[in-house]
Automatic annotation (TrEMBL), chain B:
This protein's name: ABC transporter ATP-binding protein
Record key words, sorted: ATP-binding, Nucleotide-binding, Transport
The family this protein is said to belong to: Belongs to the ABC transporter superfamily. Macrolide exporter (TC 3.A.1.122) family.
Assigned GO CC terms: membrane protein complex; plasma membrane
Amino acid sequence: MRLDDLVRISLRQVIRHRRRYIGVVLAIAVGVAGFISIITMGQDVKRNFNEDLAFIGGVTIIRNVLELRPQLPLNRFHPDTVQAIQRIPGVYVASLVGLTRTKGEWQGQVEEYSVVAVDDNFWKMRGLQALTGALFDKKQVEERQRLAVLGTRLAQSLFGTDKVEGRTLELGRDIYKIIGVVGGLRDINLDKSVFVPLTTAMDRFGRQLAVDRLYVRCLTWDDVPSVAAAIPGVVQAHQSAQNLLVEVSWENLEHVKRVAFWVEFFIYLAFAATLILGGMGIWNIMMAAVRTRTREIGLKKAMGAEDRDILAQFLTEALCLSCAAALVGVALGRVLVELLSIWIGMRPPEELFFTCLAFSLIFAVLLGVGAGLYPSLQAARMEVVSATRYE
Amino acid sequence: MEPKPEPSPSPLIRVADMTKIYHNGAGPIEVLRQVDLEIYPGEMVAVMGPSGSGKSTLLYILGLLQAPTSGSYFWEDTDVLTLDRSQQAEFRRRRLGFVFQACDLLENSTVYENLEFPLIYEGVDKKERPPRIREALERVNLGHRLYHSSNLLSGGERQRVAVARALVNRPQLILADEPTGQLDRRHGHLIMEHFEEIIAGGDTSVVVVTHDPEIAARCTRVCPMEDGVLRGLRQ
């Protein structure tokens, strides 16, 4: 039998009996759509979770500290070290932080402030947003502007409100313009701090400022071990790393990974179950088709069809079913991916979707052949006489 | 009707000493006993006998749908019992046509699709199919039913379509198992008229299995069969 005839006949058969097949097709389609959306969006969803540090407990942040030790000279992170760390595969963002305390006059009284000197990456690294006003950006950091962002508790204690944009604050002997209040700080000490540009603080506070902390946030929790392992080497390549301490919340990281693994596992299991049931559905429906079309098989053999023609026809029908289901699944998957992209605000690489599409079609072929082979063999081996006499 | 052509002296098929024994729980059942049969080109032979006499079994063996227990079966000079499954299928699609009692058409298909299958299995080019299908349908006066659904045809029309399907591959032999069994008298005779027209060409022979003497009387030769015994050699 010619291939075009075979495909035409099989498609015609499937279309004419579509009501019989619709349940199986939908079951497989849902499974395929689920797999596509998980695989395509999985990485982006992880990154999105990553942004919600409260959810995962900041497990993707690696804290690097240059410890002050009596026998070692005072050490600071060099700018080229920070840039090199930023280039490590799996690093999302690196932020250099300096801490100091300073006094300032406020309404006739001297107050002591905890000053956190940060670069513009700090907000991204911590996933912080402005509660009111704005957070200073790269340009303002580079221009060493005397700007301040207050933690919510500090703003409340000083001004009794969050709306402090435009006001000023005296730190040391300098006046800083407050441009906003940062929200989402879970650390009480940080929430009572004043944030100033790192460059400005280095100028104003000099050696009083300890620029000894470098926070590195990884793309996903899967990247944390490799990035943590790479940091000492990278630091050593640019400066002394004798007093370097790399801290990772391994326990929390393992906990988050374990939770994520089980969530992912059960999602995969659910979709795998759907697909297995779909495969069994094809097997079952093809067996039923062989039974109900016994006379047709006998008739076709009497017309001169060979065993392989009958085998090919039933197998192609099973393939048409599984491929049709996969195509519906791919379309559904695409819609899901689009919706998820809008929801989490990230777009997966297009080639990943096409890879999934190719895998889905390969899977559909395997499913069709796997589930359709036995019923097709049954049909092909049928004896003509008993088939033509079948009631 | 034109006078029937004189059959050629050399038989198209020769069956000799053929037996068929079925085995079931009660023991062996001999369905065919030393059957001898010759069919000549252009003749219509009726195998006539009561139910259970082995007529259909003989027809299935002639159609290579079933193997005999013993005996010989030659098609011209070919010993067809030595052919393997695939060669037998090829033999069926090139030389044989079947008409079954139950007006067996493929359900939910058009008349065209029913007639296309034998051509598909034979590997006939797509362009050649429509004229051959039309030609076969014209021979049973159903040219106007080409794209009708087989489910919507009357019993008589369905059987005529089955005859057309048996003809579409231009076979040498048509095997008809009680072709008029489910038809009324008028339609039964119409089918026989079609068979008469088919053999009139001299290229195609027909074997009709029937228990109806009236149908058998329209054949060029009648071979009575009883308890598996048939004498089918031409006198």
